[in-house]
Amino acid sequence: MKKTFMFLMAAAALSFAACKDNNKSELEKKADKAGEATADLAKEAGKSVENAADNTKDAMANAADDLRVARDEARKDIQKGIDDINDKIETMDKKMEKAARDQKANWEKQKKKLIESRKKLSTQLDEVGKDMKSGWKEFQADVKKTLSDVKENLEQ
After folding, report:
1. Number of CB atoms found within 10 A of residue 122's CB
2. CA–CA dist 35, 32 (Å, integer)
3. Any idea what the Cα angle at residue 144 is, between residues 111 and 156, rounded to 5°?
4. HSE (CB half, 13 Å, CA atoms) of 4?
5. pTM of the predicted structure, to 2 decimals
6. CB neighbours of 153 closer than 8 A, spacing ≥ 6?
């Protein structure tokens, strides 16, 4: 009986150990699956971060290109305004040589306005080349107003 009891105890211990090993294997399998799932999620997250970085780079490049184009257009518009003022002043100077005194006085006033506008446009032309991190929209609005005033003065 002692031998039988020992035999049963040994068999029970082996069974228990075998079950424990099977459970351990199953737990290891689950842990491996969880680890693989985590690795897959990390890969996907890495791809998402890379895509977001690429999209950000593209957006910044597009914004820089848009700003460069806007600056070039503003520079061109400002220079045209300055050229138009210079042409008008030259024409006025020629006319003033032959004009009557009261007409000369009127043209002198207009010429002063044009000269002030030309100075403002020259300053804006200098500003357009500077690195404006903020205030670009306000600057554009100011240039448009100045050019509108110049156009009005040129039509007088």
Report:
1. 15
2. 5
3. 30
4. 1
5. 0.61
6. 110, 113, 114, 117
Phi, psi of 135 (to 5 degrees): 85, 10
Residue 78 and residue 143 in contact, taking contact as beta carbons nearer than 8 Å:
yes
- Cβ contact 85:128 at 8 Å: no
pLDDT one-digit tens code per residue, 95-150: 888 888 888 888 888 899 999 999 999 999 888 877 666 777 888 888 888 888 88
- Residue 156's contacts (CB-CB under 8 Å, 6 or more residues apart) are 110
DSSP state letter for 100: -
Q: Rounded to an integer, what is the distance from CA 46 to the centroid of its chain?
A: 24
